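ASSEMBLY PREDICTION REQUEST
Request ID: AP-0331
Submitted by: J.K., bench scientist
Number of chains: two
Total residues: 512
Priority: normal
Notes: Please return the full assembly, not individual chains.
Input sequences:
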Amino acid sequence: MNITLSITKNIHNWLFSIMPEGIASIAEMVLIAVVYLAIFAVAGLYLVLLERKVAAWFQLRIGPNRVGYWGLLQTMADALKLVSKELTGTVKADKFLYNLAPYFVIVTALMALAVFPFTQEFQAFDINIGVLFLLAISSIGVIGILLGGWSSNNKFALIGAMRSGVQTISYELSVGLSILTMVLISGSLQLSEIVEVQKNGWLIVQGHIPAVIAFMIFMIAGTAETNRAPFDLVEAESELGAGFHTEYSGMKFAYFFLAEFINMFIIAAIGTTLFFGGWLSPFGITESIPWLGVFWFVGKTLILVFLMMWFRWTFPRLRIDQLLTLEWKYLLPLNLLNIVLMALIVWLNLTIQF
Amino acid sequence: MSYFGNIYRGIKTLLTGMSVTGKYFLTSRKGAITQQYPDNRDTLKMFDRFRGEVVMPHDEVNEHRCTGCQKCEIACPNGSIEIIWDRQVDPETGKKKKMIDQHIYHLGMCTMCGLCIEACPTDAIKWAQNFENSVYDRSYLTKVLNKPGSKVKAGIED
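STATUS: Completed
Returned structure:
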């Protein structure tokens, strides 16, 4: 537990002064978990709103503008509606797995958030294998999708889930390898350490050519990882109804939906931390005010989120064979070449340092 | 095409697509095509080609152009048009002549296909851009297109 920003330090000291040590640390963990849950549930809702607004602007529409000023409460109202709806299911569904699946997806999405450094020393869990932890956690999410598709006793859901399995397992490789490329240059798996390295220039500048290639591969594979268009054949509306969550309703559907958007935020946050200096300000302009790091981190993340939305509303959906061709014939060999290139650059000290 | 040529072409075409949508994104404020309907009811103008309902225009002396040829009635695929006609003595020539009594149009059955308007040889009926067509009883949807007391304009049949 490494939260020592002044406000969190005060709470930390206060908790430890009124309780015995064991209870205090448990209380602190619960407190942090509740704060993260609350913040990211709301943030997920607002990402949905952002997506709808951005989609509208891309299609020359206006978008949600009735509920609250400028439509700001639209997704809140949607969430309230989803909470109040009946939870339905199919007759011969595997009830236990069917109910378990949404929690797999949402819990893994929220767990991955724990390791991000939002600003200097503002991080719930500064584990020294942070990048590995992220990769491991994000590959658990696909189990939830597979379980949901399989247990809901529906052909569409099963096909969607199987596609998801194929897609996520393939693209996991590309995400992993492109992150590995950046680990080569940063020399650490700890996320706070990786940000620390970037004080001499963001990694996308330090690593120049291979870093840019790695970033492009990471964005493509990351979009595929979150099952969003153009890689949304998991839930292809025109082919499969809603894919793996066809049979889900009410709050369970909302979990899947929220998890998709939190996953998008996570991919963008990984991109920010690994390529664009995490919470570091450009040229160190606000270095003396550490809490502004949250602003820079969220700002950069939202730009990458916007990039993914841009992809979604521009490109048509890939066919399953095109999807696998792209991964196995293009991204993977390029990625392996890229790692060699990056290793050469690090070895010969050709990185750009400020 | 070579392997790297494919990659280059792929990236180039993707960026072209993104620049197109990006331009739309930046200009969407000015070019938004959404009509905020009940709010802009006073200023909303429907497009010329919008098919609201079939009307029969009358001029200022209450004369229409319908000769009662029934081509529209025959052209209509689902019987939305019924023409009640009669042979009456034309006061000018003294001959018996086919004249419409009522041109009945069932808006509730109309599919807005426009075949009647294409079939009309004298342009007696045309599309109106009126779109607020909902009523509380379906009997209101049966309309008589020619106004009471109207007659056919002279010289149309020639």
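REVIEWER COMMENTS: Chain A has 13 helices and no strands.
SIGN-OFF: pending second reviewer
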